[in-house]
């Protein structure tokens, strides 16, 4: 979590879980195939002498589907059979790589059609990534989640190293047609393994809202969860400058180091070695230091990698810096995912994880275009140095600002109140106005104000709208809390599947400042209510 924690089981313990081990193997093969495809296209564009902006479109094309599809896929994953989604995504990737092979065989392998195949592979990767990340907490127990996420990050970055290496070897020994044929076989192997594994995940409830409404609900949750917002902002601020490495590494190897495909593969292999080293060694370190210190130090090391790649011209000298970059990349990115898995409640976790993946890949896409454009103007070396300076500044700022503590945030469900459940069941159809009454002594008003402010965020992030607290003009010392809920189904979820122990503590904190409390009272909202609702942050009548 955000603070140093107790010792937790290491990577070996997570690998002893058979289902996790099997699906992690599938994830490795799939990710290797993805990166062979993407880097193969990127290297073909590089060797043809395409501008840096066009070359950078290869990683951008893989990231674009995350921007467009991750959040709706997260909604679907919340209720669908995730293992079936994995199979369908692997089939789509197989077809895309076969299409790339066909393009090469017929001589129609221009930049646009090749990049379109990357788009399809990227779209399939959205489904795989969101489904897999949502399955991790179901496959391993809570104590093993940090190790499992670190292993997953290492696997993805190992694939990022092995993929270019395989691409370089096959391109050098055979050619692009054989390369894409091999990728097709790898994706097909993933389909076969998933069908043979048949690993069912937990049964999930049916959807009670439309996909657009569920997407808005995820964004509404993030807006009213300061901890989640802070996590996403820090992830984006790291990802934008860090993306310069992946956008420009092929150009740096080709133009600055003057190496061929084998040298490019070796460079990526060294980066991958750093990723594996991070998975094997950094878990215990992360548990013993504050998260913001851990991230800031490794971000600083990653900045050194960017600076070295932009200024040194010998691969042998670059090796330790490349290892450091691999360590920093997987350690920082897996930290964001670990925190999300540990803190977010189940009802919203797949959607927020999808949003996290969307923003992560979005920063990669935007960053790839940005640093490609900078390299076209300034050159590859200066562009990498600029990115290094930005990332170094991020590291310094993070050390000073820190991160909001996640202490007390956990996805543990509270015990619902049967009386409230019964009341919700008797409510009418349509939008509901929910009202609570609090009697507050004058001496406790400041404490009540602080507690009700925290409860306001809780009500809103679990789905309420138009929250306000006002004094009752007819009863001095009595305060009325009201908010709107879409319908009784959502209210039932608020009082059951969305009611975690931390959210319940916020309610208890408000009650502890009162001499008497009552509610909820449910009132069917009139149809004309929406156009005259009060603002969601409104508090009237002075200080509570």
TrEMBL record:
<feature type="transmembrane region" description="Helical">
    <location>
        <begin position="231"/>
        <end position="253"/>
    </location>
</feature>
<dbReference type="InterPro" id="IPR036259">
    <property type="entry name" value="MFS_trans_sf"/>
</dbReference>
<feature type="transmembrane region" description="Helical">
    <location>
        <begin position="380"/>
        <end position="401"/>
    </location>
</feature>
<keyword id="KW-0813">Transport</keyword>
<feature type="transmembrane region" description="Helical">
    <location>
        <begin position="111"/>
        <end position="132"/>
    </location>
</feature>
<keyword id="KW-1133">Transmembrane helix</keyword>
<protein>
    <submittedName>
        <fullName>Putative MFS family arabinose efflux permease</fullName>
    </submittedName>
</protein>
<feature type="transmembrane region" description="Helical">
    <location>
        <begin position="318"/>
        <end position="340"/>
    </location>
</feature>
<feature type="region of interest" description="Disordered">
    <location>
        <begin position="511"/>
        <end position="544"/>
    </location>
</feature>
<keyword id="KW-0472">Membrane</keyword>
<feature type="transmembrane region" description="Helical">
    <location>
        <begin position="352"/>
        <end position="374"/>
    </location>
</feature>
<dbReference type="GO" id="GO:0005886">
    <property type="term" value="C:plasma membrane"/>
</dbReference>
<feature type="transmembrane region" description="Helical">
    <location>
        <begin position="294"/>
        <end position="312"/>
    </location>
</feature>
<feature type="transmembrane region" description="Helical">
    <location>
        <begin position="177"/>
        <end position="197"/>
    </location>
</feature>
<dbReference type="InterPro" id="IPR010290">
    <property type="entry name" value="TM_effector"/>
</dbReference>
<keyword id="KW-1003">Cell membrane</keyword>
<feature type="transmembrane region" description="Helical">
    <location>
        <begin position="57"/>
        <end position="78"/>
    </location>
</feature>
<feature type="transmembrane region" description="Helical">
    <location>
        <begin position="144"/>
        <end position="171"/>
    </location>
</feature>
<keyword id="KW-0812">Transmembrane</keyword>
<feature type="transmembrane region" description="Helical">
    <location>
        <begin position="22"/>
        <end position="45"/>
    </location>
</feature>
<feature type="transmembrane region" description="Helical">
    <location>
        <begin position="85"/>
        <end position="105"/>
    </location>
</feature>
<dbReference type="Pfam" id="PF05977">
    <property type="entry name" value="MFS_3"/>
</dbReference>
<feature type="transmembrane region" description="Helical">
    <location>
        <begin position="259"/>
        <end position="282"/>
    </location>
</feature>
<feature type="compositionally biased region" description="Basic residues">
    <location>
        <begin position="533"/>
        <end position="544"/>
    </location>
</feature>
